[in-house]
Amino acid sequence: MTSVSIIAIALLTAAATMSGGWMALSLGARRNLVLGFSAGAVIGVAFFDLLPEAQQLSGGLALSAAGVGFVLYLLFDRVLARHDNCEADMRRGFLGAASFSTHSLLDGLGIGLAFQAGHGAGVAVAAAVLAHDFADGLNTVNVVSRNGGSRRHALRWLVVDAFAPLAGAILSLFVSLAPEKLGVILGLFAGFFLYIGGADLLPESQRAGPRLPTAIATLLGALFLYGVARLAMP
């Protein structure tokens, strides 16, 4: 696979992320359903995508890394929210968006490294990234908007998240990363996402609207990511 082809795939992931973000911005009247789906998708990414991959790459370190990631994010969240005001909420939202964007950068890096390992592995990883980047765009917009960020802030973070895989793909042309280290990083992000989904998006979605429809939306978000993970399996 040539470098041009890898970058082209990364651009497709940017389009998928932007599509998810635009959907989140366009469905303001259905905020509880969007937040519910987003919560399920974030938790699904952690359980069905990141943790299994981290386990495969790093073995027994994956769950420990996820636990450390959960606790670190909890501490960051408590420190950032030590004052109950809009500015603290916005910082929390930006931290969440930065986590999603960093994960997207690793997605792009993973695409490039997978193609270095072989064409089949590269295609499988690229398909998985394309499938769940739609949810990434949705989640990025929701976590910023949920924490007091304006539409302009959400759009800015959406653009950052959308083009992060392109940066990761370009980076993969110049560097390599040991599988064990990549597994630990993925485990950390699994912990981050479990906290974002379980402690932030999920409770807010239940407050924003009827509980049963929101719960169904959450299950659909989790099932969507489960299906993506199953399709990506060799």
Could you characterize what this model shows?
Helices cover 88% and strands 0% of the residues. It is mainly alpha-helical and 234 residues long. The radius of gyration is 17 Å and the shape is globular.
Order of helices and strands: HHHHHHHH
Helix tally equals 8
Number of strands: 0
Number of domains: 1
Mean pLDDT: 79
The general outline is: globular
Largest sheet: none
Which residue ranges are poorly predicted, with pLDDT under 50 across at least 5 consecutive positions? none
Concise summary:
The protein has 234 residues and is mostly helical. It has eight helices and no strands.
Q: What key attributes describe this structure?
A:
0% strand; 234 residues; 8 helices
Describe the secondary structure blueprint for this structure.
Blueprint: H1 3-26, H2 31-58, H3 61-80, H4 86-117, H5 119-146, H6 151-172, H7 179-208, H8 211-232
